[in-house]
Amino acid sequence: MNIRKQLLFIQLVILAGLQSAHRSVLIPILRPMITSFNITYGFGGLLIGIYMFLSGLAALGWAVYSDYTGLSRRILIVVGILGGILFTALSVSATIPLLFATFYILAGMSISVIYPLATTIILDLVRKEGRAGMMMVFTLLSGFGYAFGFGLGIITVALFNDWRLPILILVILMTIISLPFAILLREPPKGFSEEELHDVLRRTYRYPFTLRPEDLKVITGNRSNVFIVLQGVFGIIGSGAIEVWMLQYLVAEAEVNEVVASLIMGLGALGSVGGLIIAKIADILSRKTPRARPLIAAICSSITAFAYLFFLTIPLRLNFETNNFVEAAYTLVVMMSKNPLLLTAILVFFLAMVVNSSVGSIKVAVLSEVNLPEHRATVISGTSIIELLSKSISIAVLGLLIDLLHSFRVPLMIAVSMWFISAVYWGKTSNTIDIDVWKLTILLKERRAALTSSNSTP
Q: Residue 438: is it exposed, middle or buried by C-beta count within 10 angstroms (0-12/13-18/19+)?
């Protein structure tokens, strides 16, 4: 990519990173927030689940509006960030649990505009044979925002015993970073990276086609879209369980506090960088056959399920707590050299992150291969909202099961087993993708002919 595209990519990474931080900061402040408001883990799980679901629903609304009207994606992102700043600021001062939840959820719904529109902008920058790799880079870099929000919550609670402080810091960062970056975005026209349209759009720099109501039948009739949705419904259950409840599992089962548990998860999460290699391999193999990407995703999903099930069967009893990160890191290194169970657990977690981290970017790349440019934001957000419905319900159900069983292990094992079903539907996608890619090629050629004709008409 040239410098202009690189700058745009960096802007999108930072915007998506702060959006992720807004969600992830809730997880480490969950226990002190529950104590402060005198509520239960069930309520906390419900709050996070509703936040995720309604944010996904709002993202779908933003995406449909963008595809239907053809309005500048930059303008929509700016409006969403302004709403996010306002509602997050209001949540900081809320003293009633329901009021806090309402404002924070509204903030999440506002900034949910970022991910789907940023994703389609990136797809318009990169040719189809490089999209899984580029989306993996985007996921990894913006994932630092998730880690930042998580770490911000851990550190501020540990040092200042104030769970509201990290939220206030996010308000400041969104105001001085997210808003200016959004205003300065320079987006390409939709479809700019498509081989069939690129040379025409270089001259016109305008893609006039928009989502029409009758297009929904085309989208839902696409079998690859259907199977990708189904794999996501089951795969996201495991992801949600790991994201929300794994920290609490380690605190309860391994007898450590949040600082130590977050370091254990952080060491394992380093494996996500290895997903870039898998995504690159998927891109290379997809040049020979479109079936490569879904087949690789199926294999990765199966390995992920096996790895997390193995991790959850390892009996960890560390009995170690400290709020000093340096001491925690040093002690964990020493324990790893003496405790083979701890070392095995971290390595297995690492393996799970390596193989699973690339699946999301592969999904986006596959969806871009079988859907028109004016449909992509809607399709990507539509699949995400269905996944988030599954995720939010499963998080809430797991919270209730944890309260009922007084255990984290069994509910988590049930959740990660869902990746096996996800792998089955990835396999079905590999059987339908060839015909759907062929159909898209025909439609893009029709779009090219229409653009060429309208451009040559005096």
A: exposed
* pTM: predicted TM-score of the whole model, two decimal places: 0.81
Structural contact between residues 90 and 168, judged by C-beta atoms closer than 8 angstroms? no
**Look-up of token digits 């790991």:** 242
445-455 residue pLDDT tens: 888 888 887 65
Three-state secondary-structure class, residue 320: strand
| Tens-place pLDDT, residues 220-245 | 888 999 999 999 999 999 988 888 88
Is the pLDDT score of 457 beyond 60?
Answer: no
Q: 320 pairs with which residues across the strands?
A: 256
Q: Where are the domains of the chain?
A: 3-456
The one-letter amino acid code at 312 reads L
Domain 3-456: which topology? Answer: Growth Hormone; Chain: A; (1.20.1250)
The helix or strand, by DSSP H or E, that contains position 53, with its residue range, turns out to be helix 41-69
Cα–chain center distance at 144: 12
pLDDT, the chain, mean = 88
Rounded CA gap, 118 and 135, in Å? 11
Longest dimension (CA), the chain: 79
Asked if pLDDT for residue 456 goes beyond 60, the answer is: no
**Rounded-to-integer distance, Cα 220 and Cα 230, Å:** 12
The CA distance from 445 to 32, in Å, is 57
- The single residue listed with the structure tokens 């079905």 is 428
Look at phi and psi of residue 289 and say left if phi exceeds 0, alpha if psi is from -120 to 50, else beta. beta
Characterize 170-209 residue by residue with b for buried, 16 or more Cβ atoms within 10 angstroms of its Cβ, and e for exposed.
Answer: bbebbbeebbebbeebebbbbbbbbebbeebbeeeeebeb
Q: What is the pLDDT of residues 231-283, one digit of tens each?
A: 999 999 998 888 888 888 888 887 878 788 888 888 888 888 888 999 999 99
Other Cβ atoms closer than 10 A to 155? 17
